[in-house]
Amino acid sequence: MMPSAIRMRDVEMNFSGGRDGSAYLALRGVQLDVRDGEFFCLLGPSGCGKTSLLNLIAGFVTPTAGRVDIRGHAVTKPDKDRGVVFQSDRALFDWLTVEENVSFGPRMRGLAGTNWRGVVDDMLRLVGLWDHRSKLPRELSGGMKQRVQIARVLANSPDILLMDEPFAALDAYTRGVMQKEVTRIWDASRRTVVFVTHDIAEAIWLADRIGIMTRGPGSRIREIFEVDLPRPRERMTAGFIDLFNRLSEAIDAEAGHAQHQEATQ
Question: How far is CA 18 from CA 15, 24, 211, in A?
Fold first, then answer.
């Protein structure tokens, strides 16, 4: 078995500060191991705690209880070993060119010009933006902006890439293109990836394994599915359709369980 890059044990996350002073239990009893170099997708409906879980791995927040480890070390804050690609392209600096956006991290880390230029050039070629390096974000399509985000994160050489529904705002065609692009980039870099989505087909296309999250409050990972399909994947194959149906049934069963709990409370 591959060693774990990320390990979560008995993780609980409470959010307080409601108008009535109440707390909301977002996550409870989360157990998770993400293997080194794998592409892991978190799948579930909106509001099930996927982003909260990702923020814990990123170190943006700390758990109320339990422990989050990266390669055996407790996560207590953000670190350069983890890079985050957000859903919104507002993370880009509008006044900087593509090249300047991608080079921002290496330059802030104090890399000499000859060193960061080589890194940035490699990342721009990897994501297919070399010919667009002098453009500003406003001159780019939505898919190209997301590729800039990915290149900017990879330029900092993180071991782990965290992606929070990065293609949610894209049209269906561009989304499909970006799914192929991120698979190609992952295959070339072999970073450990945790990718949040609510799209079943997207998860199957991208992932080595898929974790199904329960509905909140007190969300956890209900079940993990292995995606034993060859790459590149074809959506209309029997294996793809069978896994799609099994994932749909698992999510529907969870929704029915949540509705039953609400009705009996």
Answer: 8, 8, 29
Q: What are phi and psi of 85, to 5 degrees?
A: -105, 120
Sequence-separated (6 or more) residues with CB below 8 Å from residue 101: 92, 93, 137, 148, 152
d(CA 144, CA 174): 9
Task: Give pLDDT tens digits for 22-32.
Answer: 788 999 999 99
Listed by start position, the domains of the chain span 1-79+202-265
Antiparallel, parallel or unpaired: β 39-43 and 82-85: unpaired
User: What CATH number labels 1-79+202-265?
Assistant: 3.40.50
Reference 157, options 74, 69, 82; nearest CA is 82
- The predicted-structure confidence for 199-238, as pLDDT tens digits, reads as follows 999 999 999 999 999 988 899 999 999 999 999 999 999 9
